[in-house]
Design goal:
This protein has helices spanning about 5-15, 20-35, 35-45, 45-55, 55-65, 75-85, 85-105, 160-165; strands at about 125-130, 135-140, 145-150, 175, 185, 195, 200, 220, 225-230. The chain is of the alpha+beta class. The radius of gyration is 21 Å and the shape is globular. The chain binds zinc ion.
């Protein structure tokens, strides 16, 4: 199962608050850097409020509770149950989606735009990890972070199809343990903010699909050469 599929299986319980702290952190970090999963979550964002508005009997049927708890304070028993049985999570998500469908068919107003926006994840952290004997920068998910030789300290020419292959690391970011240097940001041509490290705008590579990979290192494509951000050689 790839990371996005795994995360999407958790989004329902993440929004409902019935998730362990460790899994909550894992989902939050993923959402920082994955626009597609953020979109998915935005589509589900009305779920908690909607479930609270369903008749109590309906909610009981799905959640096994007399009333759905506030999203931010899951009862310990529910969290324990979710942690114990992974299948329960998928079941809860399915139940939530089923409730949505039931609510829609029963004429309940589904007003996604009126729901409070999902809380933004905490600012991302850059980490120092050892990959292939070299200490390098990674994003919070452990994906290798790169700098692009044609960049200046204030501008990135990597846009459009380049940026699709080399996603800019959203800024601002903070430094995890062992990360030296100066962190900053630039504003990209499309108005988004990109993190920088010692004057280098930062990217990840679509080529890398898991921590421990540095497939983009020293590649000369997309108009220039890409380098992993090596701390030891810095
Ligand atoms: Zn994703």
């Amino acid at each position: 199962m790839d990371e996005c599929t795994s995360i999407r299986n958790e989004l329902g319980v993440y929004l409902l608050g019935a998730i362990t702290p460790a899994d909550r952190a894992r989902v939050a970090w993923h959402l920082v850097s994955c626009e597609r999963c953020r979109d998915e979550m935005a589509g589900l964002a009305a779920l908690p409020a909607l479930l609270r508005r369903l008749p109590a009997g309906t909610v009981m049927q799905f959640a096994g509770q007399s009333a759905l708890p506030p999203a931010s304070i899951p009862p310990k028993s529910l969290v324990d149950r979710v942690a114990r049985r992974r299948r329960t999570r998928r079941w809860l998500t399915t139940a939530a989606v089923t409730s949505l469908a039931a609510a829609a068919s029963a004429g309940w107003a589904v007003a996604v735009s009126n729901s409070p926006p999902a809380r933004a994840p905490a600012a991302a952290v850059l980490e120092a990890r050892r990959i292939g004997g070299v200490r390098i920068l990674t994003d919070a998910q452990g994906l290798t972070v790169y700098w692009f030789a044609p960049d200046s300290a204030t501008a990135s020419p990597c846009t459009d199809s380049c940026a699709a292959k080399w996603p800019p690391v959203p800024g601002p970011v903070s430094a995890g343990p062992g990360v030296p240097g100066t962190l900053g940001t630039i504003t990209r041509p499309d108005g988004t903010v990109q993190a920088t490290w010692d004057g280098h705008p930062l990217y990840t590579a679509r080529l890398d699909t898991a921590p421990g990979q540095a497939s983009g290192n020293n590649l000369d494509i997309s108009g220039g050469t890409w380098h992993e951000c090596a701390i030891t050689r810095h």
